[in-house]
Amino acid sequence: MQSTPLAEEFESHRRYLTAVAYRMLGSHADAEDAVQEAWLRASRATPDAEDLRAWLTRVVSRICLDQLRSRIRRRENPLDGLPDVERAPDDADPVVRAESADRVGYALMLVLEQLSPDERLAYVLHDVFGLSFDEVAPLVDRSAPAARKLASRARERVRGAAPGDGGHEATRGQRRRVVEAFLAAARGGDLTGLLALLHPEVEFRQDQGADGIRIIRGAERVAASAAAYHRYARAFEFEIVELAEGFAVVAIEQGTPSSILFFRSEGDTILEMETRELQ
């Protein structure tokens, strides 16, 4: 990139723009491509010199929105894992927070993937980066109140809230307690405790990478498999994360998320579990 005043100012915003693009696209490579495309457009256009950051934000957002809509048509899922930086404090700059690879980062990206492109853009730009709805509205071709509704719907999905379900808070708490109990029993090799949590016909699907999916059925077999895992648990840290439709457990090995375990439960009983490798 030739050193010009425009290029120098663009470089000063690159980190921010990459953070916006990554939260939108969930892929480092795609985020970098989007930022590079924004630079090409800026170098060919006459950007707003008084507020280049705002102009570039609009350009990157449009590029990302086009990519998301194209993915839906091609049915792609581009998630490539977590950024390799440390957790940022809650009072940090929004850019730093968005770049931060906290332990719920992958789970959040899974939830964001469930949003429509417009919901995702409205949520990311407003809730993560602090843009006003007046700024977000033209990017999604809506009014400011409509953009606010998009972000609100997205926020409910991200927080795991089901609109209109008055009993959801109780259900969510119950689901978390079931997951906490399962994790405690599995880490302790507590076969009896595991059996108490599992439906007699529970199904456990294990992602084994190139070897495909292994399916274990029945409470006794699933409990035995989970109880045996306690021998390896010392090598991992575990974090319970909240998704739009319940809770999951992320296994972290030497600071890197290695797998995620999803649960489907009813009352105090686990009906289904599924692991997914993250590496």
Structural notes for this entry:
With 279 residues, the protein is of the alpha+beta class. The protein folds into two domains: 5-158, Butyryl-CoA Dehydrogenase, subunit A, domain 3; 168-277, Roll (Nuclear Transport Factor 2, Chain: A), CATH 3.10.450.50. The chain has helices at residues 5-25, 28-44, 52-74, 94-99, 105-113, 117-128, 133-136, 144-158, 168-188, 191-197, 219-228; strands at 198-207, 213-217, 237-243, 246-253, 256-266, 269-277. Strand 3 (237-243) and strand 4 form a beta hairpin. The longest helix is centred in the first third of the chain and has 23 residues, at 52-74. It is elongated. The two termini are 33 Å apart.
Topology:
Layout: H1 5-25, H2 28-44, H3 52-74, H4 94-99, H5 105-113, H6 117-128, H7 133-136, H8 144-158, H9 168-188, H10 191-197, E1 198-207, E2 213-217, H11 219-228, E3 237-243, E4 246-253, E5 256-266, E6 269-277
Parallel strand pairs: 1-6
Antiparallel strand pairs: 1-2, 3-4, 4-5, 5-6
Helix pairs in contact: 1-2, 1-3, 2-3, 6-8, 9-10, 9-11, 10-11
Mean pLDDT: 79
Just name the CATH architecture of the largest domain.
Up-down Bundle
User: Can you give the helix content as a percent range?
Assistant: 40-55%
Strand order of the largest sheet: 2-1-6-5-4-3
**CA(first)-CA(last) distance:** 33 Å
Low-confidence stretches: 78-90, 97-104, 161-167
Helix- and strand-based class? alpha+beta
Number of strands: 6
Helical segment count: 11
Question: What does the largest sheet look like?
Answer: 6 strands, mixed
Residue fraction in strands: 15-25%
* Total number of domains: 2
Q: Supply the CATH class of the largest domain.
A: Mainly Alpha
| Gyration radius, in Å | 21 Å
Order of helices and strands: HHHHHHHHHHEEHEEEE
